[in-house]
Design goal:
Layout: H1 28-59, E1 66-71, E2 74-79, H2 82-114, H3 121-151, H4 165-194
Antiparallel strand pairs: 1-2
Protein name: DUF2975 domain-containing protein
Organism: Brevundimonas balnearis
Keywords: Membrane, Transmembrane, Transmembrane helix
Length: 195
C-alpha cells in the first residue's frame, strides 16, 4: 500500500488569513518608506540647526571659555578655541549630512519596492552610493576619534582595528547587495527579452 501523496502543504499564518506582503502598495516596504520619510525630514532639520550653530560659532566671543575634560586621573580644563569648536560642529554637520544622504537613497530604493519593482536599475547605483558614503563616514569617525584622543589624552581612546570590523563588514554587505541587485536587474532584462 502506497502512502498518500502530499499535494499542498498549508501552514497556519500568524496574522490571520491575509498574507503579509513585502512589496507593493500597502506592504511592509511602504510602511518602512513612511518611517524613512520621517527620518529624512528630522535629519535635515537637525542638519539645519547644526549649520546655524556652525555659523553662530564663527561670531560668538570665546573669551575665557573652557572645556572640562574628564579622564582617569580627574578633570582638567582646556581653553575653548574657535578652530576646535568649528571643527567639532562641522564634524557633526558632515555626520548628519551623510546620513541624510543615505536615508535619501534608501527612500528612493523603498519607493521602487513600494511600486513592486525591486530590481530597478537605479537601485544598483543607489546602493553603491550608500556603501561609499558609509565608507567615508567610517573613515571620518575613525580619524575624528584619533584626533580627539590626541587633543584630550585619556578622555577618549581611539578606535582599534578590531572595532572597525563591524562598520567595514556593513560597507562590504552593501556593496554585495548592489551586485545582487545588478544581477537581478540583468535577469529581469533577459526575461523581458524572451517574452
Amino acid at each position: 500500500m502506497r502512502p498518500p501523496r502530499l499535494t499542498r502543504l498549508t501552514l497556519p499564518r500568524p496574522w490571520g488569513s491575509a498574507a503579509l506582503r513585502t512589496l507593493g502598495p500597502g506592504s511592509v516596504s511602504s510602511l518602512l518608506k513612511v518611517g524613512l520619510d520621517v527620518a529624512y525630514v528630522l535629519l535635515w532639520a537637525i542638519l539645519a540647526i547644526l549649520i546655524l550653530a556652525f555659523v553662530a560659532a564663527v561670531f560668538i566671543p570665546l573669551d575665557n571659555l573652557t572645556v572640562t575634560v574628564d579622564d582617569a586621573a580627574g578633570g582638567r580644563e582646556l581653553p575653548l578655541e574657535r578652530a576646535i569648536l568649528l571643527f567639532a560642529v562641522g564634524s557633526f554637520c558632515a555626520y548628519f549630512g551623510a546620513f541624510a544622504l543615505i536615508v535619501g537613497r534608501l527612500r528612493a530604493i523603498f519607493r521602487t519596492l513600494t511600486q513592486g519593482d525591486p530590481f530597478h536599475p537605479e537601485n544598483i547605483s543607489r546602493l553603491r552610493q550608500i556603501g561609499l558614503i558609509l565608507a567615508v563616514v567610517t573613515g571620518g569617525v575613525w580619524l575624528w576619534q584619533i584626533w580627539a584622543a590626541r587633543l584630550a589624552p585619556g578622555a577618549m581612546e581611539p578606535q582599534g582595528v578590531g572595532e572597525l570590523l563591524t562598520p567595514i563588514f556593513s560597507v562590504l554587505v552593501v556593496f554585495v547587495l548592489a551586485e545582487v541587485f545588478r544581477e537581478g536587474a540583468r535577469l529581469r532584462r533577459e526575461a523581458e527579452l524572451t517574452i
